[in-house]
Amino acid sequence: MGVIMQAFYWDCPRLEGKEFEWWNFVKEKAQSLSEAGFTALWLPPACKAANLDGMSMGYDPYDYYDLGEINQKGSVPTWFGSRRQLEELIKEAHLHGMQLYADMVLNHTNGGDTEEINGLNGQKRWTKYNPGSGKFTRDWTCYHPSYFERWDGLGFGDMPDLCHHNPYVYSELMEYARWLIEEIGFDGLRYDFVKGYGSWMINAILERLYEKNGTINFSPFGVGEYWDSDTSITQWLRETNALTDNPVTAFDFPLRGRLKDLCDRYGFSLRTLTEKGTLITDGLSAWAVTFVENHDIIRKDPIVNDKMLAYAYILTHAGYPCVFWQDYYNLGLGAEGAASGIATLVKIHEQYAGGGTDILYCDDDLYIMQRRGSGEQTGLIFVLNNSARWNGRLVITQWADTRFVSMGWWGKDNKDTPEEKWTDGIGSVDFWAPPRGYVVYVPQNL
User: Fold this and answer.
1) Fewer beta carbons under 10 A from the terminal one: N or C of the chain?
2) What is the DSSP string of 206-272?
3) Residue 11 and residue 53 in contact, taking contact as beta carbons nearer than 8 Å
4) Residue 445 has pLDDT above 90, yes or no
5) For position 260, what pLDDT does the model report?
6) Is the CB of residue 160 less than 8 Å from the CB of residue 108?
7) Which residues have C-beta within 8 Å of that of residue 187, sequence separation ≥ 6?
8) How is residue 436 annotated by DSSP?
């Protein structure tokens, strides 16, 4: 299915010394990311933000149509750059075969120009908007409480909460989605804080046919941020996807919780990885975007130990994996060209990690999994070891009389190269992994 790179982290322009130049910085990485095997880039909100306490990361949208062209809210460019630079990044990524996903904040806005009295509750709020683009002007009737909806879901802080049942708001947001895809060039949308509004809004955006590359049949990718239990996320997915042939996906937050425990909790049992309670283990891998860190969760609950174990899991298992920029570059876990890095796992994912998943063996400290392969992806064996010594087990695979080589591996304080393996006539062989580490074995003589 591919691999996403989340091409930002919190306050990345300032921390990288790339204020107003982030789009150019990502553009410089596009070719190497494509060559590493990444197929999509998820970008931060591109529109002009309220910037009430200085330049922001864009999750407080003010003018949806100002991508860095208008002198308002403290600058002409956004925190990430200008519209021209964004369009050049999109063009460069497309040139190298990658898709671009826009971060779409639909629940709320911020930075209103004038305070108004809400006619329903008498409350005074900053709900009068006259954005410099002249598009999607707003007043109190666009927000909750509203004539058009008796109940609102969750608010986002104290930011005015848009009422999507207002026909004007609905049509403007539908037009905004069209504009991002057809005119700016995005291929998909990441929906921020989907708990705050009806799933029907996302369904409407995904159901629409978009004109791209000269035809009116483009279906954009979509992924929702529903930060909750597997039961709640599953309910949201089934509700959103009930009447569409272009289903939305969701981030697998419950899986990320287990992966943090794998990396950070002493005595974690690998049996937990096989239990129900995540989108992957609940049979919803086709609707799951798996991840290790993102811009929000790393600031609240970061993984601090042995993070490569988590990346090895998501890049060998089912789902649509998303790699975090800060891990790949700033922490040096990308390690392009090294068997122990994320870059090698991305190549493994694209070349081998296809087909169904079989757990060949699992106990508290040893986990051995087989991907059966599909099409040009020939399958793999993944061995995860949670003990303090080399650990392995005889298992029966689907491959008889087959040579296996270790393509990617990592072990805590261990740099030994795993031995190649040959299965016998019924497909059995012993597979091993280093202390507190993993090995990905791939078949060779198929």
Assistant:
1) C
2) HHS-EEETTEEEE--EEEE---S-HHHHHHHHHHHTTT-SS--EEE-HHHHHHHHHHHHSTT--GGG
3) no
4) no
5) 98
6) yes
7) 40, 99, 100, 101, 181, 220, 221
8) T
Q: Are the CB atoms for 366 and 391 separated by under 8 Å? A: yes
pLDDT interval class at 219 (50, 70, 90): very high
Q: Are 76 and 68 in contact (CB under 8 A)?
A: yes
Identify residue 153 by its one-letter amino acid code: G
| 363: three-class secondary structure by DSSP | coil
Q: Which of 313, 322, 328 is nearest to 262 (CA)?
A: 313
Q: 88-106, pLDDT tens digit by residue? A: 999 999 999 999 999 999 9
Cut 0.90: pTM above it: yes
Across residues 376-402, what is the average pLDDT?
97
pLDDT of residue 265 exceeding 90: yes
Label residue 389 by pLDDT band (50, 70, 90). very high
DSSP string covering 278-295: STTTTT-GGGEEEES--T
pLDDT digits (tens, 9 = 90+) for 293-313: 999 999 999 999 999 999 999
- Whether residue 161 contacts residue 126, with contact meaning beta carbons closer than 8 Å, is answered with no
The H or E element that residue 40 is part of is strand 40-42
* Type of residue numbered 40: A
Three state DSSP letters for 165-190 = CCHHHHHHHHHHHHHHHHHHCCCEEE
CB atoms inside a 10 Å sphere around CB 86? 27
Query: CB–CB of 346/32 below 8 Å?
Result: no
Sign of CA dihedral 29, 30, 31, 32: positive
State the Cα–Cα distance between residues 115 and 99, nearest whole angstrom.
Answer: 40
- Residues, the chain: 446
Residues 6 or more apart in contact with residue 112 via CB below 8 angstroms:
125, 126, 127, 128, 129, 138, 160
Asked if residues 79 and 55 have their Cβ atoms less than 8 Å apart, the reply is yes
What rounded mean pLDDT belongs to the chain?
96
* Contact indicator for 313, 259 with CB cutoff of 8 Å: yes
Lowest-pLDDT choice from 1-10, 111-120, 153-162, 169-178: 153-162
Instruction: Report how far apart, in Å, the C-alpha atoms of 59 and of each of 38, 105, 110 are.
Output: 25, 6, 9
Q: How many CB atoms are closer than 10 A to CB 350?
A: 19
Where do the domains of the chain lie, and which CATH numbers do they carry? 4-351 (3.20.20.80), 357-443 (2.60.40.1180)
